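SAMPLE LOG
Freezer: B-3
Tube label: C17
Construct: single chain, 106 aa
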Amino acid sequence: MNAVIRRHRRAVENVAEARQSFHSLTDAAPPDSVAVWKATIEEAEAARSTSPQAMDVMHSQIKTRQSLKEITAAILQDELSTQNLGADGSSTTDWLLEGLNIEDEQ
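STRUCTURE (predicted):
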């Protein structure tokens, strides 16, 4: 029971931030997209009582952030294609990787 109460309190605390985020997103989105989103949500909510999986459209479709390994590989690939070398002969990748390593150590 305590877990339910804690979740409810957290939901109440976060509702204002969620509303602000929602309004920011809908204000920035093209009107056509907002209309499609609303229609999709209405369809999901109508089907929800017979098929709870219909609400899966509410899950975020955003990929998780890239790992350091993926970022490093992308930078190395970009460098190979452009051969960016600094005045001292070091590559841009060396400089960026050093910065990432420093940030990682902090």
